[in-house]
Structures
1.
Amino acid sequence: MVVPSGPAFQYLKVKTHLREGIASGRWRPGERLPSEAELTEAFGVSRMTVNRALRELHQEGMVERVQGVGSFVAQLHRIASTLTVRDVHDEIAARGHQHEAQVHLLEEVAATEAQAAEFQLQPGARLFHSIIVHRDNGVAVQCEDRLVNPACAPDYQAQDFTQVTPTHYLLEVAPLSEARYTIEAQRPSPLEAKLLGMPRGEPCLVVRRCTLSLGQVVTVVRLVHPGGRWMLQGSFQA
Amino acid sequence: MVVPSGPAFQYLKVKTHLREGIASGRWRPGERLPSEAELTEAFGVSRMTVNRALRELHQEGMVERVQGVGSFVAQLHRIASTLTVRDVHDEIAARGHQHEAQVHLLEEVAATEAQAAEFQLQPGARLFHSIIVHRDNGVAVQCEDRLVNPACAPDYQAQDFTQVTPTHYLLEVAPLSEARYTIEAQRPSPLEAKLLGMPRGEPCLVVRRCTLSLGQVVTVVRLVHPGGRWMLQGSFQA
DNA sequence: CAGTGGTCTAGACCACTTG
DNA sequence: AAGTGGTCTAGACCACTGA
């Protein structure tokens, strides 16, 4: 026969079988799984199909594979979860709330030594600088303090950021290739506390993100969220 | 010919070509990419190879595919980054530092109504409760307040958590299948402030995580980190 | 209808590891 | 040498879309 019964999602059958065996503890972490040849025989499918199942489980971090040796249940010590850092506007809109943005500053500055180093530019090079406060149904939830590389977004200062967020605009003009970020708890700066309308002593969730496009640093942003008004959420499967 | 030159990682050539075209803006977000047939011809490879390249780009969130229509450059609005929440011990050890754990409490409690609901158990059901402080070279960096479902880890109370972290132990006895978490900034509770040796008013990074195994809630944990002593890091490619 | 992606096969050659 | 995974082919059938 050529194709026995058409697409029956055979690779999913194999994948599910292995996933359930791992989840149920039938195969313990570090233990060896059946070889591709064994699974090929057991399921009566081609090796490519078994290979895809195992490859995807590997990509999902559930299985480790060693050429010439075999496939093994991964040691799931780390919980690598997908944290979705979405555009504020989308996040607020998704809750059915009203998003407002207030531009408090939009200027051109000369890079300090530290800033120049981060942008891989010369000290004193021009940078755009913006400070924008985002509100959810009128409540200030984020203060966005951003530096932008003019080489990547020459028209940055001409945008109306009450209508389109900088995140959205920058993703349009400079396709994202890499991002690095840190998340920590801090007190707001005096200016941030004033702009967010919160006491100086209240904790804030601070996300700092550096975004690259084609190896160039496009923008570095500090996002300050009042502790009681904003929270990151995520989940992890498998 | 059967195989022209052995593994030359053809699917990577196709993948790289598309990835660079997207990153360089040659294909804009929403724009249509060449069909599998066109790529098959252009690269002189089989369709399976092209298919793998496109499928992986789709799995990475860079390409959207619609059956019967075509493949398109994804709208990269969301920045879905892989945040690695590792075991404290590993994280501290990875820096070459000394990890110490201090067990402040290890008891059995009756579930409150809210706790019972979260664990999908009856109010008053038994739960294990532990409070452990983790130190990095003697500095308290995390207060771990944890509830555990006895059905998943009956021997929880018999463990020596100065030697093996609860995270590590629980992953051994109850393979992880799903986790949900939130990250926010808060002040520590009076007890947490005391255990961590920090002022009440200092901000903390608080991670709350609910872990499931085989559809059962295994554990709910609150991880409190002094603001200046701990930070989450992550990065995102493509 | 033609074109697209989704899946699958039954082989193949190769690099690698272990006995 | 035998077994493993890594890659690849040249076909195939199918479901879906849009003109």
Note: Chain B has two domains: 10-73, 83-231.
2.
Amino acid sequence: MTITAGESREAISSEELEVWRMLQRAQVRITRALEADLLVEHDLALASYDVLLQLSESPGRRLRMNDLADRVLLSRSGLTRLIDRLQRDGLVEREACTSDARGLFAVLTDGGAARLAEAAPTYLRGIRAQFLDVLDGDELRQCAAMLNKLFPDPCTGQDSC
Amino acid sequence: MTITAGESREAISSEELEVWRMLQRAQVRITRALEADLLVEHDLALASYDVLLQLSESPGRRLRMNDLADRVLLSRSGLTRLIDRLQRDGLVEREACTSDARGLFAVLTDGGAARLAEAAPTYLRGIRAQFLDVLDGDELRQCAAMLNKLFPDPCTGQDSC
DNA sequence: ACTGTGTAGATGCGCGTACAACGTTCTAAG
DNA sequence: CTTAGAACGTTGTACGCGCATCTACACAGT
């Protein structure tokens, strides 16, 4: 393997690989535990919870489908189906966009807000148990710093309408 | 919506929540980029790569289905189907366990090892680009320390036979 | 108004996964 | 030896996701 100036051409040590593997395992493990709790206690998938949460934090409890898809890390088609289900369950409604006939808002209903409020304690408890409680303040700060480098700032959402 | 819809012992600050969310986003992002590369360049899913890798690192290039399922973070049925596919493609073979007629080994074939060797550079390059290169040595050490707390003792695999 | 390019969502389809149930085999108690 | 229960792996089934595709609409240039 050729070595040029710059670190990116160096071989990867087994320690580095191990860090990566542990990261994967930890993330999957935490996410599954969290989702299982939500599913058992509130019959709510993690993706659904995220959608409800994003909507609840948005002005007017509404978001364009496109913007929402970006925030929830879901494909457009995936979001369409998920909103279908949430709408069927009465947690969300679709509303046309007056200034752009292509656009559609997903709007959180009162029922959806209530359901979110119900589930929030479970969610927060899970995060604390699986993640936050395990780390101290310094570690959390270090973690935040690393994440900022890993995930610069893609979410400059532009809302139209 | 406020954070404490229900009562937790200690409130979770929005910074903490934000760290968790970024962790989720970063992990999904990295994993998808990695999988996309593997798929495009070698027509190999990430889960398949992991199976091949685990087998290649195991004595005799073989592992019991159950042990393998644990290491790859897959359900038993999921692993059955995945091994079906890998076997169909000639990358893996099934072999009976002589001392336990219930048991089955998944065995890496020469073709599977070759395919793994082919794909490894892509995998390693992806990890470097998405993860390792972004962090410096200190950060990597901090990350390892945190992960050890989050995921105390992952792989205490006991091989039978 | 007309046409071409781009964007917003929805839909057909195939794939991969998990859950539950099943058959087979191992193990221990009687 | 017999039998109950656990463990291993596979199969039926349903579900969620993404890709490619489609329709409807927007906006610019002519």
Note: Residues 3 and 17 of chain B are 9 Å apart (CA to CA).
